[in-house]
Specification:
Layout: E1 9-13, H1 23-40, E2 44-47, H2 61-70, E3 76-83, H3 89-102, E4 107-112, H4 119-126, H5 135-146, E5 170-174, H6 177-186, E6 190-192, H7 201-211, E7 223-231, H8 235-241, H9 243-253, H10 273-278, H11 280-283, E8 286-289, H12 291-304, E9 309-313, H13 319-342
Parallel strand pairs: 1-2, 1-9, 2-3, 3-4, 4-5, 5-6, 6-7, 7-8, 7-9
Helix pairs in contact: 1-13, 3-5, 6-7, 12-13
């Protein structure tokens, strides 16, 4: 596994909608973030499918990917992820076939099996809700649509146009062992949702590595994990900025998700002692601090977690501070490289 100084870094953008703003504002800021990430040298940026959440605007995921790709030139864009049980595999093949045709060589298709929403909304999306047990069959159907019809012994009656014959990387996403094992068995790249399920991270990643079988896609396993990273000019500033994300998680604990809130000086005025204790689950997947602290934490993380790439999420209310956080992360990686070179 690469050391932090050599590790590709990517961005997970949840298209946050701040209090007092609209989804349109979120999309403009998402484009600004994507352009900033491209300039800084981040490897890829993914957006995630969520529904019925005022604070997340990326429900029409493929549409947003197209908007972001159209405003950039080189950074890879993709889904982190498309919740496949919500959709007909043919529709996803056509959507991502369209994206790949518009922006060749830049599109990733990350797939999850959760609904990305509550059960009532899932029923509105799917009409028939299941627990994702048919995910492997849906995945197999989707993969068939991307095959070149000319290479198939029996020409298919239904083709994805566009989509058929295009080389679109498929990733499996997960927060437990199911997708990790399936990705390994199928020889696909795997991304773990460490930004909200850090307690399962090492076990799921190791299961993927242990289950991996070479395929036409990969000769060797390739694992990525998401983590929350908030970098400030100082530890104190990062702690202050981080209260926005804590409020976001608190709203999920209370089952009252809303728009993204500005940072506060004192979280103890907002949560109970029991709620504070419950936050430990999310804080386990969070790195925050000033530049030196973030560098040390990321170096330690990279040496202890078996991944090839890190995808960074960071819910910062102020757009300027959000962009600066991603800038500081790349700066400390360069410092890590320089330090290693001097040894």
């Amino acid at each position: 596994m690469p050391a932090f100084k050599d590790m590709p870094l990517s961005v997970l953008n949840l298209s946050p909608v701040n209090e007092g703003e609209t989804p349109g504002d979120s999309f403009k800021k998402s484009l600004e973030l994507t352009q900033h990430a491209e300039k800084l040298g981040y490897n890829r940026l993914w957006v995630a499918e969520h529904h019925n959440m005022e604070g997340i605007a990326s429900s029409a995921t493929s549409v947003l990917i197209s908007y972001l790709a159209g405003g950039t030139s080189s950074i890879r864009l993709g889904s982190g992820g498309i919740m496949l049980p919500n959709h007909a595999p043919l529709a996803i093949a056509e959507q991502f076939g369209t994206l790949e045709s518009l922006y060749p060589g830049r599109i990733d298709l990350g797939l999850g099996r959760a609904p990305g929403t509550d059960q009532t909304t899932a029923a509105a999306l799917r009409r028939h809700v299941n627990s994702g047990e048919d995910f492997p069959a849906r995945l197999e159907e989707l993969q068939r649509y991307f095959q070149d019809p000319a290479s198939m012994a029996v020409p298919p009656q239904v083709k994805a146009v566009p989509g058929a014959g295009l080389d679109i990387p498929i990733w499996l996403l997960g927060s437990s062992g199911f997708s990790a094992q399936l990705a390994g068995q199928l020889g696909l790249p795997y991304a773990f949702a460490g930004h909200f399920a850090a307690e399962n991270m090492k076990a799921a990643l190791q299961l993927y590595l242990d289950s991996f079988q070479p395929s036409e896609v990969l000769d060797e396993p390739y694992a990525m994990t998401g983590i929350n990273v908030i970098a400030g000019e100082t530890d104190e500033e990062a702690d202050y900025l981080g209260t926005t994300m804590k409020q976001q998680f608190l709203s999920l604990i209370r089952n009252r998700p809303g728009k993204i809130q500005p940072p506060v000086e004192d979280m103890d005025a907002l949560w109970t002692s029991q709620e504070k204790a419950m936050m430990a689950r999310w804080e386990a997947g969070t790195i925050q601090g000033g530049p030196e602290s973030v560098r040390q934490q990321l170096e330690e993380f990279s040496s202890n977690v078996p991944v090839h790439e890190i995808m960074i999420s960071g819910s910062v209310y102020d757009q300027t501070k959000r962009l600066r956080s991603y800038e500081l992360i790349k700066e400390v990686q360069k410092q890590s490289t320089a330090t290693a070179a001097s040894l």
